[in-house]
UniProtKB/TrEMBL annotation:
Protein family: Belongs to the aldehyde dehydrogenase family.
Protein name: NADP-dependent glyceraldehyde-3-phosphate dehydrogenase
This protein's record includes keyword Oxidoreductase: yes
Family matches, as PANTHER family: SUCCINATE-SEMIALDEHYDE DEHYDROGENASE, MITOCHONDRIAL
Gene3D superfamilies per record: Aldehyde Dehydrogenase, Chain A, domain 1 (3.40.605.10), Aldehyde Dehydrogenase, Chain A, domain 2 (3.40.309.10)
The Aldehyde dehydrogenase domain, residue ranges: 39-493
Pfam families: Aldedh
Signal peptide (residue range): none
Gene source species: Arenibacter aquaticus
One GO MF term: oxidoreductase activity, acting on the aldehyde or oxo group of donors, NAD or NADP as acceptor
Domain of life: Bacteria
Length: 528
């Protein structure tokens, strides 16, 4: 039995049967097959998943229609959007973000129900996304100002800008269904590409309130939104070979499967944020209070369902006992509850099969010699499994090898710092690391090595993506291309320029082009 006590403003008063989809600027009505959307959060005291609504279950036909619309809007480089003046594209984006802001409450409520994210984190996801869009607009203005000039080398003038790549297929993850999807979609759109976007497997209904904003803010065909399974919708689009960029945040299996469908791999640009197994390395002189705080946030924020989560802890054997004791106590003191409850840190898992998967990892580790250090570790409720701290973990255990993406924390000890360094070098992943310690003589050479194994070394701090102005990327199977407010604009564009030899004909022609303002590309106007 679960006591629900749902505040009136967060109750599900009516289900959302999401029938609309956006193709070629038209909000079409779907009358085909649909899939029901359930939340693992119960609305009744007797536990039962809550029906939130339904979404279209589209297939190849609609997927190809969306692709056709995106191709038409790009129109072989002639389309209104890719040739538009930068300030006009910015105006469209400003209109969109204004409309989006009016949907905050609806989207925050759906984030809580669809993916179980706590109220403050759901609000943060929304606000961070709005800020990301506004920052992107500012950065693009700067990019444009920097390009509003001519340079001359060896008698050749050049007017260099960044141009769009073509058609972008955008697929986001369920843990940040708004923020990370938009971290791909927004820079792709603003740089002049045309897009097809399919929401993640959870966190789909929360796109519903934004369909009209997309439709009315951008020219037709620039943003096309379809719903359905990746295999049914994304695969047929890739098979055509007409997608120029695959932008995906998710796991490398889906990314590989999709990129392999593309018949001309050399023509496909990849912007990928994939899985990771970020380690925490705790040196013998680490400040334990701070380390425990950061490891709690790093391993268990949003129940560990973050690509940047700390997924394995290496603690020096001299302090392992003390760290383990304090850490276990803190994990069991965390508050579990529904997302809107005051002070909750652990919330229901949106994937119904996740508790069973985590249980498998626990069973496997125990069979191979690990213990659960915390009293509540592994306790099941209808939609949750309490984070188990597993110790001592070894390399044969599944929890060491697999990205758990959920509430279970493997701990290993080390004597020699080469042990975690070797493991990181052998790992398939290379996103971030957290290093805890004070002695600069120990830390300095470690930093110099770690920066070559991952792409962000967090000193006495948990791993995280933000602030979004910092580069978000990884090595090996963890990422391809770099995201950040600034880097994403680069990832979704290519340098392209007009060059001319210095002679009177060219000087006169270019002067006329500038004066007449007939070209949208050749321009030295400043956007303020
Ligand atoms: O799922 C991976 C996310 O990029 C993590 O982002 O560090 O902001 O939670 P975050």
């Amino acid at each position: 039995m679960v006591k629900t006590n749902i505040p009136a403003e967060y109750e599900i008063k009516e289900v959302i049967h999401q029938k609309q989809y956006l193709i070629n600027g038209e909000l079409k009505t779907w009358d085909g097959k649909t899939s029901e959307v359930y939340s693992t959060i119960s609305s009744t005291d007797e536990y039962a998943p809550t029906l939130l609504g339904s979404i279209p279950d589209m297939e190849e036909k609609e997927a190809l229609e969306a692709l056709g619309a995106a191709l038409k809007a790009f129109d072989k480089g002639k389309g209104a959007w890719p040739t538009m003046r930068v300030n006009e594209r910015i105006e469209c984006m400003e209109l969109f973000v204004k409309k989006m802001q009016s949907k905050r409450e609806e989207i925050v409520k759906l984030l809580m129900w669809e993916i179980g994210k706590s109220l403050p984190d759901s609000q943060k996801e929304f606000d961070r996304t709005v800020e990301y869009i506004n920052d992107t607009i500012e950065d693009y203005k700067q990019l444009d100002r920097d390009a509003a000039k001519f340079e001359k080398n060896d008698g050749v003038y050049a007017h260099i800008r960044r141009g769009p790549l073509g058609v972008v297929l955008c697929l986001g993850p369920y843990n940040y269904p708004l923020n990370e999807t938009f971290a791909l979609l927004i820079p792709a759109i603003i740089m002049g590409n045309t897009t097809i976007f399919k929401p993640a497997k959870h966190g789909v209904l929360l796109i519903t309130p934004l369909l009209e904003a997309f439709q009315s803010s951008f020219p037709k065909g620039v943003v096309n939104i379809v719903f359905g399974r990746g295999r049914a919708v994304a695969a047929p689009i890739m098979k055509t070979g007409k997608v120029d960029v695959l932008a995906l945040i998710g796991n490398s299996k889906s990314a590989n499967a999709l990129q392999n469908q593309h018949p001309k791999s050399n023509r496909l640009r990849l912007v990928l944020g994939l899985e990771a197994k970020n380690p925490a390395i705790i040196l013998p002189d680490a400040d334990l209070d701070l380390t425990v705080d950061e490891c709690i946030a790093g391993t268990l924020s949003f129940n560990g369902q973050r690509c940047t989560a700390l997924k394995v802890i290496y603690v020096h054997e001299d302090i392992a006992e003390e760290f383990n004791k304090r850490f276990a106590k803190r994990v069991d003191a965390l508050k579990f509850g529904n997302p809107w409850e005051e002070g909750v840190k652990l919330t229901p898992l949106p994937e119904p099969g996740k508790p069973a998967y985590i249980q498998e990892l626990i069973d496997d580790a125990r069979e191979k010699g690990a213990r659960i250090l915390n009293k509540k570790g592994g306790q099941h409720s209808e939609n949750y499994i309490w984070p188990a701290i597993l110790y001592p973990v070894n390399k044969d255990m599944r929890v060491y090898k697999e990205e758990q993406f959920g509430p279970v924390v493997p701990i290993l000890t080390f004597k020699d710092i080469e042990e975690p360094l070797d493991d990181m070098a052998e790992s398939n992943y290379g996103q971030q690391v957290s290093l805890f310690g004070k002695d600069v003589y120990a830390i300095a050479p470690l930093i110099d090595t770690l920066v070559n194994l991952v792409c962000r070394v967090n000193l006495n701090s948990s791993c995280q993506r933000g602030p979004d102005v910092y580069p978000f990327t990884g090595r090996k199977d963890s990422a391809q291309a770099t995201l950040s407010v600034h880097d994403a604009l680069r990832s979704f564009s290519v340098r392209t320029f007009v060059a001319f030899k210095d002679n009177s004909l060219n000087t006169e022609t270019v002067e006329q082009l500038l004066e007449s303002k007939l070209s949208n590309f050749i321009s030295t106007d400043y956007i303020l």
